[in-house]
Amino acid sequence: MRVDELRGLSIFDGLTDEQLAEFVAAGTEVRVEPGIELFHEGEHADFWWVLVDGALDLVRHVGREDTVVGRMDQPGRWAGGFRAWDEHGVYLATGRGVIEGRVLRVPAETLRERSNAWFPFAAHLIEGVYGTARRIEATARQRESLVTLGRLAAGLAHEINNPAAAATRAVSALEGACRTLLSSLTRLSQDEISARQFTALDALRREIEPGSAALDALARADLEQDLSQWLSRHGVEQGWTIAPPLAAAGVDLAWCERAATVLDGAALEPGLEWVASTLLTATLISEVKESTRRVSELVAAVKSHSQLDRGSMQTIDVTEGLESSLVMLGHKLRDGVTVVRDYAADVPRFEAYAGELNQAWINLIDNAVDAMCSDGTLRVSTRVADDAVVVEIADTGPGMPPEVVARAFEAFYTTKDVGKGTGLGLDIARRIVVERHGGTITIDSHPGETVLRVSIPLRR
Fold it and tell me: Which residues contact 3 (CB under 8 A, 6 or more apart)?
């Protein structure tokens, strides 16, 4: 490589031909070919790579996938060489060839020596800035990740705890109901109830459909009291345990009179106890099924949100990602928040980084809920416009002042107190939408309504 080939690169502005010649003498010209990997993420950054022509992709391993995080396609762009200032410096990404060209590879030791010799003050500044920035970023990212994870985990644990506790209570009650059912059958057999009587009683039982009675709490309490009084008049001692399941199923006094004509006096109590136990058992089994179904739905939503078992780039249904994000934030959407879903039926599936988009959705939804102080209407809508999928997250909060809207997408800018939010700023959401998916994200805000509008092209 010749000195004149480097002279046009802006990174070498201010260096003399002799200084450039030292770089050329210490460095090596390396050919770039599509697919070739020049340096690898995580390895010691022992070389400084300066692009002369061609292009490189910077690839990071995220989860189980390789993700392109940047591209060196302008002559003079550089990567690596961090051991010139930090003995522990490593490559932050893998450099993979995309377009044929050349790079100048200079040992980090040479870079350190030349920097110290030519620009000692600048070299000390770079070393200090690099070390300080790396420590601050590592600490901040770790802290933000832990805080975000803690908030999501706490919310998810709260969501799972409710159905799990309901299932536990139902199973515990189910054990007692089964014991009562078996004991009532034993008592019926001891009273020598005939097969015809039991068949008639079972026919009456089948007329009752557990859970079908649409009674409010007051009407149900009145019916339970009427049944208790009827059972007491007919000599049933355990009426206080028999009446509630019958009332919950909507059993009336006329049905009880028919049951009394089927059963003899002594068999009336165990017979009704058996019917009540079967109704209670069916109700408890239904509660267990519903509770475990809810737990399964929550686990499936988390799995869909994290995308741990899928590739990073995939064909997605945007509605699925929005719904999983709503589930993840379910603990914030109860008190006073009304969720309005307006999903267009003609939105097609499209290719996207699903896990990253889900991070953007959860951040936008969380911001909207916080803006309303957990009291208002959250509208989540999708539609197709101009060959792009448009997603809108709207809230009925007080709106954003123009000065906040103007800075909303700046890195590190926030209006929230410490410890609030997801830790994922609008700047990262913008990068996910704009840089990763070639889309746009805008804010339309006025008092009473703020709309975050995301547009992602169907064909990139």
Answer: 17, 20, 21, 24
How many alpha carbons lie under 13 Å from residue 440 in its C-beta half-sphere?
Answer: 8
What are the tens digits of pLDDT across the range 178-222? 998 999 888 888 877 888 888 998 899 988 876 666 677 888 888
Sequence letter at residue 47: F
Q: Are 391 and 452 in contact (CB under 8 A)?
A: no
Q: pLDDT tens, 366-398?
A: 889 888 887 899 999 999 998 999 999 999 989
Contact 350, 420 (CB under 8 A): no
Cα–Cα distance, 438 to 431 (Å, whole number): 9
What's the Rg (C-alpha) of the chain? 35
- The torsion of the CA quartet 292, 296, 302, 303, rounded to 10 degrees, works out to 160
Q: Is 191 exposed, middle or buried (0-12, 13-18, 19+ CB in 10 A)?
A: middle
CATH of the domain at 324: 3.30.565.10
What are the structure tokens assigned to 86, written together? 């930090």
Count of C-beta atoms within a 10 Å radius of residue 410: 12
Q: Which two tokens stand for residue 360?
A: 């953007």
Neighbouring C-alpha atoms within 13 Å toward the C-beta of 383: 7
Q: How far apart are CA 344 and CA 347, in angstroms?
A: 6
Cβ count within 10 A of residue 437:
23
Contact call for residues 159 and 327 (beta carbons, < 8 A):
yes
Task: Compute the distance between CA of residue 89 and CA of residue 82 in angstroms, rounded to an integer.
Answer: 5
Joined together, the tokens standing for residue 394 give 């709207």
Q: Are 281 and 245 in contact (CB under 8 A)?
A: no
* Residues 335, 259 share a domain: no
* CA 33/CA 55 separation, integer angstroms: 9
Burial degree of 137 (CB within 10 A; 0-12, 13-18, 19+): exposed
175 residue type, one letter? E
Per DSSP, the residues of 76-144 read T-EEE-GGGT-TT-B-SSEEEEEEEEEEEEEEHHHHHHHHHHH-HHHHHHHHHHHHHHHHHHHHHHHHH
List the one residue out of 435, 360, 358, 410 whose CA is nearest residue 68.
435
In this prediction the pTM is: 0.48
The answer for residues whose C-beta is within 8 angstroms of residue 422's C-beta and 6 or more apart is 148, 151, 152, 362, 363, 366
Distance CA(152)–CA(382), nearest Å, equals 25
99, part of any domain? yes
In a 13 Å sphere around the CA of 107, the CA atoms on its Cβ side amount to 6
Q: Are 237 and 269 in contact (CB under 8 A)?
A: yes
Instruction: Based on the fold, state whether residues 446 and 363 are members of the same structural domain.
Output: yes
Domain that includes residue 59, residue range: 3-118
Task: Please report whether residue 178 resides in a domain.
Answer: yes
